[in-house]
Amino acid sequence: MKTQRDFYEVLGVERGAAPEEIKRAYRKLAVKYHPDKNPGDHAAEERFKELGAAYDVLMDADKRAAYDRYGHAAFSQGGMGGAGGFHDPFDLFREVFGAGGGAGGIFDQFFGGAGGGADGRQRGSDLRYDLQITLEEAAEGVEKEIEIRKLDVCDDCSGSGAQAGSRTVTCTVCRGRGQVVVSRGFFQVAQTCPNCHGTGRMVEKPCRSCGGEGRTEKTSRVKLKIPAGIEHGARLRSNGNGEAGLRNGGSGDLYVIVHVKEHAIFEREGADLRCDVPIPFTTAALGGEIHVPTLKGAINLKIPAGTQGGAVFRVRNQGLPSLNGGGRGDLFTRVQVEVPTKLDGEQRAKLEEFAELCGDDNTPLHRTFYDKLKDFFS
Question: How confident is the model over 106-126, as pLDDT tens digits?
């Protein structure tokens, strides 16, 4: 009689392991021993089934409690659930990894799947890079050079995956069919051969540097041209700068997501800019000129006498260029009237005299507010 191993030992976890720890252990080992990754290996298939049985019991609170008390006897004839109490190991695998119902889905995801050409070529993956730029760079446009780590064409075999003089031969796993048959309980399902990726052909002598893939990990530099007026969150596509394909199967693309840093002074609204500028209350009362910041330097802005706090002045063509060629946006400057916080005796006396001279006739907002207040309480 075959001796059954302890389920905790099968998964390599302690008896007090939490469910998440058990799940992580199962995920790691199930991928390693899955029959699709080990075609024709009976020992690996048995190990895969053993992992499924262990996971099925230890992830079920009732089954685990019975197992901890009685061991494997809890599931023998007449015990809890019997042999039929275990779920199909392939169903468990799909459940844990969230696979869809398609015949290829989860196996394509983990073991390479189909998609290669007749000679084993396969397009490389697309990549994403997040790039941060300043508002000034967004306004004028800029060229950037970024550095990324990715799978690139192998230098030793120039991407072919083969040693010099090597031939292409029939795949020894699927014998040229491009598929292998996997048993799932009472069913047998044909899956894409994980060794040749469905082509039926293999390189006789794989390149020693890349193991026959035609690509190795390298650090690459990519130059990017950021157009003037680019928006925060915009996506730029750099053709062919993604990962190299399998055996010269063509490179993927690089997608660059642009993030425009928040500015200390300006807020952006499309192509327009907004900013707040403090002015002395004397300038607001008497009028005058103030310096207003723009992305290209300070300019003078005329403030009319009697300007109230919160007034907004529009400065044309001092925003950002429009990407669609519609000219530049504007700068909207909101003035904040600044009141002195410290007054000496002479200054206070002068202001009190000034207040008496003004009276109510020179405070239209104050008068209007109290007129409304009288109406409200009448």
Answer: 444 444 443 455 456 778 899
